[in-house]
Amino acid sequence: MTIKLRTVQDKDYEQIEELYESAFPENERAPLFLLVLRAHQGRGKMLTVSDRGRFIGFVYLVCREDIVYVFYLAITPKARGMGYGSTVLRAIQSLYSGRRIFIAREQLDKKAENYSERVKRREFYIKNGFMDIPSCIKEGNVVYDVMTTGGDISPREYDRLITGFTGHIMKLFIDMRLIRKK
């Protein structure tokens, strides 16, 4: 396995769109055109993941100062379970060494239809060096648990990161915030 992360090119968008729509529920997807726009503006980073020229997936990062938000990470169905996700996370950790990297993942709701999937996803992130922090992220109508490497993320840091990504006006219309758990 020899993965390569590179900035998305025009020829990649069709594959990314197909994977994006199949990998994430509609209520968890930001409009793809917005992600692309923000990447072109330098507010986000959309990278393809390939192995020997074969499309394996994509990752979307939002960075500010010493924090990196893995906003989306998706591996194609044919390549899942083969170690690509872990390899991508290691590559991100290497590229952003010394920074705090965090993800928002589905909460462990025992009543959820995909509860066992959620548990496996959490275990995957733990295996890759992430740990739970006592916070959750509200993005629109969805609430996620937060996992990080390298230390905690404060509500203020998240707010600055997300405002830099979305802009002040858009943030007025979409409730996006990090909340400390009691």
- State the name of the first-level CATH class: Alpha Beta
Main β-sheet: number of strands, strand sense, barrel status?
Answer: 8 strands, mixed
Task: Please state the average pLDDT score.
Answer: 95
Structural class: alpha+beta
Helix share, percent: 25-40%
Radius of gyration, taken over Cα atoms and rounded to an integer in Å: 16 Å
Q: Which runs of at least 5 residues are low in confidence (pLDDT < 50)?
A: none
**Would you identify the CATH H-level superfamily?**
Gcn5-related N-acetyltransferase (GNAT)
* Proportion of strand residues: 25-35%
> Which fold name is given in CATH as the topology?
Aminopeptidase
Shape: globular
What's the end-to-end separation, in Å?
43 Å
Q: Order of helices and strands, N to C?
A: EHHEEEHEHEEHHE
Q: Can you tell me the CATH architecture? A: 3-Layer(aba) Sandwich
As laid out across the biggest beta sheet, the strand order is 1-2-3-4-5-7-6-8
**Helix run count:** 6
Number of strands: 8
- Tally the structural domains: 1
Write the layout of secondary structure elements.
Blueprint: E1 3-7, H1 13-23, H2 32-40, E2 45-51, E3 54-64, E4 67-75, H3 84-95, E5 100-106, H4 115-127, E6 131-139, E7 142-149, H5 155-166, H6 168-173, E8 176-180
Parallel strand pairs: 4-5
Antiparallel strand pairs: 1-2, 2-3, 3-4, 5-7, 6-7, 6-8
